[in-house]
User: What shape does this take?
Amino acid sequence: MASSPLFDQAVTGRVTAVNDKGVRLDSSDGWLNYSKFAVGLVAPSRGDAVTLTLDKAGFVRACELADGSAPTNGAQPARIDATGHGAASGADRDRTITRLAVLKAAAEFAAARPELKSREVLVIAEVWEKWILRTDPEPATEMEAS
Assistant: This one.
């Protein structure tokens, strides 16, 4: 039986397989499972060169592409067409990240409330997104789902 890796050990390699529980690297003997305590972990795609940060028990706590960026879980960056259109700006990317984070939070919120319908999750996410992207510095005192 192999000994447990040290806390925050970094493991680098190319992803040979991915599932919802973990990844397999060409540089490791077996699967490296995601930690249930990992926050904001995005799974890499097969073929990505990654550096994984492992906790003291050997579970994946963080995943970073070899170029230092975060994995996108297979999402491809916007392509520029022959006219120069189609490239996503940094603001568009930030808004997409915000929307995905808010949608995930709304889905987690709704998971504990089985009486909510899926369309209500989208309404909640929309309201929360508006609150996050508000321009007034004062905190909201009342939120309405429109």
